[in-house]
Amino acid sequence: MDPFNWLKRAEAAQPGCGAATERLEERVIDALHTVFDPEIPVNIYDLGLVYSLDVDEAEGRVEVRMTLTAPGCPVAQTFPATVEDAVFSVSGVNDVHVALVWDPPWSRERMSDAARLQLGML
Pfam families, per this entry (predicted)? Predict the structure, then answer.
């Protein structure tokens, strides 16, 4: 008998406790929080650059629709691969597709309150 069995059950019942119990989508969002815009010191998720995230947990397939702060951004050609690499690093991800879109154009209104606070905009 495991004297800590009650603790293991309690941890497993809590969302977000360990990679095994976190949903794949949550782990992907965590990974997106580690990717920062090259010109603004805020992660792409809080900056509002991720327009949609489609996660098929059973297949491990992730589709990301995202934009950049400006169409003329110098990293437009390479940044989707950076995002793809971050998502591929998540346990349970088998396939990633990152689509760079320009419509609707990004605006500051898409930023989270955390991003606004970080940039002194609140």
Answer: FeS_assembly_P (PF01883)
37-66 pLDDT tens trace:
888 889 999 999 999 999 999 999 999 999
Number of domains in the chain: 1
CATH at residue 75? 3.30.300.130
Q: How many CB atoms lie within 10 A of CB 119?
A: 15
pLDDT in tens, 62-79: 999 999 998 888 888 999
Strands 95-100 and 61-66: parallel
- What residues make up the domain containing 30? 5-118
H or E stretch including 18?
none
Q: Which amino acid is at 19?
A: A
Which pLDDT score is estimated for 65?
Answer: 98
